[in-house]
Design goal:
The complex is a heterodimer of chains A (239) and B (290). By secondary structure, chain A is an alpha/beta fold. Chain A has 2 domains: 161 residues, Rossmann fold; 68 residues, no CATH class. Chain A has 10 helices and 10 strands. Chain A has a 6-stranded mixed beta sheet with strand order 6-7-8-3-9-10, sandwiched between helices. A 4-stranded antiparallel beta sheet of chain A has the order 2-1-4-5, covered by helices on one side. In chain A, a hairpin with a 2-residue loop joins strand 1 and strand 2. With 290 residues, chain B is an all-alpha fold. Chain B is built from 11 helices and no strands. In chain B, helix 2 packs across helix 9. The longest helix of chain B is centred in the first third of the chain and has 31 residues. The radius of gyration of chain B is 19 Å and the shape is globular. Classes of the chains: A alpha/beta (239), B mainly alpha (290). The interface between A and B is medium-sized, with 32 and 23 residues.
Chain lengths: 239, 290
């Protein structure tokens, strides 16, 4: 079986500043994979590279087909949903308008189907239902993160890219959010690539992990194995 | 009293035209944070297109809709061909492109049609309406047409997926791309819509000011004033601003400063708003939490 996502020898740069130096990793369908690493290791850039939000060299294959020369808008149409760094909320639109936009690239976006998906998402996040008519910019940080995840789910994605979903959230909210991510992964067969600074939380969620340092993969393995690795434990988990 | 009422109503009629053009300005401003100086000349050029059709024997309303469609396509093409290449250029470069467009459209029109003033027909009958002399049928018709345009735009932006996508693209291009919106095309569509609205404004004002290549110069100034008064990031503010500027200009012109100084009202408003309340009277203040 071909891997869902294969990245080989990926380079990326912002102007003259090179950030990724030949990163390679593989993701299996149905898995939750996490990219760990310190600030500036290139985690966010890797996710942005997958969506071609930054110029890249190297190969990215999704379901066997190359996507590294395609436009961001077309990559989205392959059902790759990106929950960006900083949440990417449309602050002047209502919560529900934000969610409807998530379904924009779907080919099967008949009104009934989209409405049914809205209800399904409101079941996961009842708070968003309460705030459906509210301007999204007035939601709390946690609510906006839930909105970002929900907007991505409206695409009915095969693969979700999550950039620091725990960033700036209270521990209780993070727990709730990660619980829902686990449910979505199990029930809806959505594969997830999660970038996290919070290594402990990420390893608990993921089944496979890659450790990135200065734009390269330095370690990979099952989440359990990575958790038991002495270096990771000392440098990233802190015990 | 009746004289005042007459001036106010007439002001509403021209105000509707300012409102339309101000709305066109705001649409492009929201997406690009730039004011399109060529918006008025685009409208003027489209109005000449309508004049050509009507002179060739096409009845008014078919010519009207053909002109709106022509202006839409013209707007889209200009965005794709002229604006797209300078998308990431510094602001001043884009402003120079806008001014070049203004001069080119103006000169080309003068070259094709000459600078002689022409009359432009009104689709509305002559004579009093409802037995009143307060408002000419053309003024009443212009208000009606403006309101129809505004309602259609509201429905489009509020209730259609494409309208929602255009708003999203204007607000947050990066996020818009991530949900699969083709941001470049949304911008081109915005140009098309703005040009189409401008064309309606041009055709409504031409019977009043007559058709000549410089006819939109003053009107664009009023539209700037309207957009600023309303808050240049708020379409509905710009519309209200348009009506306010129209009434103010007319009433002051008739009773206080005389017709010759009317344009000064627009300039005074522009400077006054920029000095006292740069966000305009209806400029939105957003609460954002992080």
């Amino acid at each position: 079986m071909a891997a869902l996502l294969e990245v080989s020898n990926l380079h990326a740069a912002y102007g003259l500043t090179r950030v990724l130096h030949g990163i390679s990793f593989v993701m299996q369908e149905g898995s939750i994979t996490t990219l760990l690493g310190a600030n500036g290791a290139g985690k966010t850039t890797t996710l942005r590279a997958l969506c071609q939000m930054v110029k890249t060299e190297g190969e990215i294959r999704f379901c066997g087909a190359r996507i590294d020369r395609r436009a961001t808008e077309d990559i989205v149409r392959l059902r790759i949903a990106h929950v960006p760094d900083g949440r990417g909320t449309f602050v002047n639109l209502t919560t529900e308008e934000n969610l409807r936009l998530g379904a924009y690239a779907r080919k099967d976006k008949d009104r009934a189907g989209v409405d049914a998906d809205l209800e399904r998402i409101y079941d996961y996040f009842p708070r968003l239902k309460e705030r459906r008519a509210q301007q999204a910019g007035t939601l709390s940080g946690g609510e906006q993160q839930m909105l970002a995840v929900s907007r991505a789910l409206m695409l009915r994605p095969k693969l979700m890219l999550l950039d620091e979903p725990s960033f700036g959230l209270a521990p209780l909210i993070v727990k709730e959010l990660f619980g829902i991510l686990r449910t979505v992964n199990a029930k809806e067969k959505v594969s997830m690539l999660v970038v996290e600074q919070n290594a402990a939380m990420a390893l608990e969620l993921a089944d496979h992990a890659y450790l990135i340092e200065t734009g390269r993969v330095v370690l990979s393995g099952s989440a359990d194995a990575i958790r038991r690795d002495d270096n990771v434990r000392r440098s990233y988990l802190g015990y | 009293m009746e004289a005042l009422l007459h001036q106010v109503l007439a002001g509403l009629a021209t105000g509707g035209i300012y409102a339309s053009l101000a709305l066109a300005l705001v649409m492009i401003y929201q997406a690009t944070h730039l004011v399109n100086f060529a918006q008025g000349e685009l409208a003027m050029f489209a109005t000449y297109f309508a004049w050509t059709l009507i002179n060739a024997g096409v009845p008014y309303w078919p010519a009207f809709f053909a002109t709106v469609a022509f202006a839409f396509v013209l707007g889209v093409v200009i965005e794709r061909v002229v604006i797209r290449p300078v998308e990431n250029a510094p602001v001043l470069a884009v402003v120079v492109v806008f001014i070049a467009l203004l001069v080119i459209l103006n000169s080309v029109t003068g070259w094709i049609y000459s600078y002689t003033i022409k009359t432009f027909p009104s689709p509305f009958p002559t004579g009093g309406v409802f037995g009143t002399k307060l408002l000419s049928p053309h003024e009443l018709g212009a208000i009606g047409v403006t309101l129809v345009v505004l309602v259609l735009l509201y429905l489009f932006f509020r209730f259609t997926p494409l309208g929602l996508a255009m708003r999203a693209a204007a607000q947050n291009p990066d996020s818009a791309r991530l949900v699969g919106i083709r941001v470049g095309w949304m911008l081109a569509l915005g140009w098309g819509l703005a040009a189409a609205i401008g064309a309606v404004a041009g055709m409504m004002v031409a019977p009043i000011v007559f058709l000549d290549p410089n006819m939109m110069g003053g009107i664009l100034l009023y539209a700037f004033a309207a957009a600023l008064v309303g808050g240049v990031d708020n379409p509905w503010g710009a519309v209200l601003g348009g009506f306010m500027v129209g009434v103010l200009e007319n009433v002051l012109g008739a009773f206080v400063i005389g017709n010759e100084l009317k344009l000064a009202v627009a300039l005074a408003l522009i400077i006054g708003v920029l000095v006292v309340k740069p966000s305009g009277f209806f400029g939105k203040v957003f609460v954002t939490r992080v």
